[in-house]
Amino acid sequence: MKNQNHTMMQYFEWYLPNDANHWNRLVEESDHLKKIGINYVWLPPAYKGASGQNDVGYGVYDLYDLGEFDQKGSVPTKYGTKSEYLTAIDVLRKKNMKVIADIVLNHKMGADETEEVLAIQESWDDRNVNMSEAIPIKAWTKYTFPGRGDTYSSFKWNWTHFHGVDWDDNTSTASIYKFYGKHWDENVDKEKGNFDYLMGADIDLNNHDVVVELQNWGKWYLETTKVDGLRLDAVKHIRSEFFPEWISAVSDGNNQELFVVGEYWSANIDILNQYIEKSEGCMRLFDVPLHYNFYRAATSNGEFDMRTIFDETLVATNPQKAVTFVDNHDTELGQALESWIPDWFKPMAYALILLRKEGMPCVFYGDYYGIPEKDVVAKNEILDPILEARNLYAYGEQVDYFNDSNLIGFIRRGDFEHPDSGLAVVLTDTIGGTIKMNMGNDFSDCEFFDCTGNIEEIIVIDKEGNGEFKCKDGSVSIWRKK
Description:
The protein is α/β, with parallel strands linked by helices. It is 22% helix and 25% strand. Helix 1 (22-35) packs parallel to helix 2 and helix 3 crosses helix 4. The longest helix has 18 residues, at 208-225.
């Protein structure tokens, strides 16, 4: 069997309709995903959020409710019912696609009851600065799950299972409240002095009972869903020692088969590589620095040096641990980390993650299918030729021609395992042009065409294997054998 390039799709975006029909749509679309070469599918959080059917899934209420119980105003989640979720996973796996589940273990929201707790008010901007003595607050920290009861787990959460909250119901005040006698974890990101606290009721992952419950849940979840991998949310807010232990426990120590990628949102490559080391290499990370390089390149009016597009990125420094992406649900228009790559640059960015050797690329649902809520049009017609080029032609030796600050190119020389493989890519953030690149003697006298359709003429490779490959202004051209 031929070795296939692995390609992930993030199969959701923030503004999907709250129609509880997403899992069914996925089943209907599964053949198409297979056809375009997607073999890893990252699904949104599948458990009940604080807003019920209106919750994207990151405001976690009950990890055990996968759309099965009448809680938070609905039985289904935003995406559908438990049975529909399990069906979708089964359909994908039978088509030899791996399913990646989104896991949120940092916080809980939507508690069932309040508790009186002593807490210290902290600074929003520096979590190491106390703004008060210990004061009594009314915190939303009791989770009794009346709709589920003791099904799957009898564990009920209370304030002792958390570090703190961001709301005092006594005074209707929003602030950071650290529970008296608790301490933020040390081995977390140092933004805001200490970035343990993110939102909601911050889970205390040093509490033995909590750790045991989350391990029990993880085992139940993997056994119940049969997913092949995990996308771990907000790992910069969680002590670095937690996930190596948790992954080992939930996968019975055999975490080689479990694909794991973490979201550590930092543009600092040193911080990402340090986290990989501290977490014992138990996960890949999303290449956030590369996303910001794309953003700068697309918004610098041609002043960005395209030769540096991979500088200080995870895919350049630690390619085995890099999951590359262009945009995601957090960088979309209107979201917390908005840094949306403009439409004109999207084909170039996707060519740079999909057609190169290093890293595992992730295609964003909002790019492929569009985001109607934000008038973002679907780019499937643009992305399909790039995906096809990845699946059929992006193999073999890679040689870069990064010699000009605006016009860059690279080639893949193909391999014997993939007949007619090999391609040449040229792109520019300003004025188009031509780069002479050597495909090798195996390609002498071959005709090449631009599979993006941007350029109609044919290029003939000379006796030495050289071709004069070109692209138009502000675009990419992908040349392959005719």
